[in-house]
Amino acid sequence: MKSLKYTYWFFVIVTVLITGCDDLFEPAIQNNRDLESSYNEPRFAQGLIINGYARIPRNGWSFNDMATDDAVSNNENNAFFNLASGQWASDNNPLNQWQNSKAAIQYLNLMIAASDSVTFTVNNNLLDRMFADRIKGEAYGLRALFMFHLLQSHGGMADGQLLGVQILDTAQDLNSEFNRPRNTFEECMQQLYADANRAIELLPLDYEDIANESQVPERYRQMGASRNDFNRVFGEDARQLLSGRIAMAIRAQAALLAASPAFSSGSTTTWEDAANYAGQLLNLNGGVNGLAPTGLTWYSNVAEINNLGGGVNQQEILWRTSLGGPSSNLEAQHFPPTQFGNGLLNPTQNLVDAFPASNGYPISHPNSNYDPNAPYANRDPRLNLFIVINGTTAGPNNQVINTTADGGTNDGINRVEVSTRTGYYMRKLLRQDVNLNPNSVNGQLHVMPRIRYTELYLIYAEAANEAWGPTGTGSFGFSAYDVIKRIRERAGVGIQNGDAYLESVRGDKDAMRELIRNERRLELCFEGFRFWDIRRWDLDLTEPARGYRIQSNVGQVINVQNRVFAPHMKYGPVPLSELLKYSSLKQNTGW
């Protein structure tokens, strides 16, 4: 019976991979394979694990920032424009991860169940064992990742209890019970931790070739494995696959979510847990000294990007997608109109105001010396790095961008459909050496990170401040204050005055919390974090998005888009289609 079940599932995966069939349980008869051909052709197993990688949500930019106070879309048909305008519903959810992540988990469960039976090599049981361990470790790590995305998107309160999703730790078949209730959020987190820890046990910290036999892990050395055997399975050829270090990062991301105000009532995860998980990873990266000096402009460091190869990462990036070839799609979406772009994401005045003065003080503080008549003077250098403001340059020819209402170009606010609605364009993520002129279009290489180290440093800072206060170090020798000081130094903030503002709040946990949250907002802007952060912090989603309209050399803050969110929307919905199929599922309150 067991063999027949595996034969069935291997033929299912081939069907789906080849045909893209929506129904996992209606494969084409002609694609059926017998047990021997399934287990003796490792491409079947590879298909299962590849499907997991292909479904990772962070395989591309979502720009859900356009549903927050950080940005708006200039396209009224954009999904996030509609979401923020009151059209978010259980049957209209651009943030839905239910079907995608559950399908990925199904494939991963099949991989875990079958991995010990697949023949990966020709007559080499030792290598088969090692390959099985690696692929099983990848599957556990990926399963933890998809659980994280499910909890982030669909975890929520239902009938007074914080629920997660249904835990599926074995592959489902035609005889499985599908009408199952959701597990609690806490049960889901414990499953996630177990999967992440199993991945950490099975996988190397990083996929790198080892130099001598003494570096072969003891358990494989006892089996007779050589350095060459280890390198064949766990060496540099496997870079960018899920590793032990990446599993540690996923665990830290999930712990931050579980410890946050919106989820902590249904979780035993503490701020100290989150700080410890992140701190363990940062210790491996050299502590605060490991923060990449060039990490602020990872997206535009031309020499670094052009010299990447063989799965190597920039110092700032822990995990990324495949590099691909030169492209110009991102710039075509977001460049200003005079640079032949569609100006899709428009940063808000709200976000611009979040950048402090160059001396480190918030612009609302009297010591910032902020001048509303010269609003961009003496500001945090990150403002010009991340946002195109009026009078700065963009594009391959460093053309001055005029966003004024009477400036005479389509870059001006609300001039044409592809003009900015806020008076600003996005600069971050874009390669300014891309040329979109139809007469001479050229693309450039782009890096798409799945996990950046700066995110992990900010996870530690947030959790450590909550657990131990601004200067508490736990067992790691560095504090939330130390991390934020290093991040701001890298940005060029507070250099001339010793960052007097940071020093003024180093003994105030609440003030440090606000500073850490603001640094996270700035450092991770446009990367798809803000929407989730506002919700897990249990903050108001309805702050109107504002812009800055300049006409006749006079600037005016304007309201651009009201945000229509109800209080219950700090948790996302269970898809209506699932509720209609399965009576045991409970919807989150308010949906």
TrEMBL record:
UniProt keyword Membrane, yes or no: yes
Native source organism of the sequence: Belliella pelovolcani
UniProt key word Membrane: yes
InterPro entries reported for this sequence: SusD-like_N (IPR033985), SusD_RagB_dom (IPR012944), TPR-like_helical_dom_sf (IPR011990)
Transmembrane segments: none
Protein name: Starch-binding associating with outer membrane
Source species, domain of life: Bacteria
Compartment(s) of residence: Cell outer membrane
Family, similarity comment: Belongs to the SusD family.
Domain SusD-like N-terminal: 62-209
UniProt keyword terms in alphabetical order: Cell outer membrane, Membrane, Signal
Domain RagB/SusD: 333-591
Annotated Gene Ontology cellular component terms: cell outer membrane
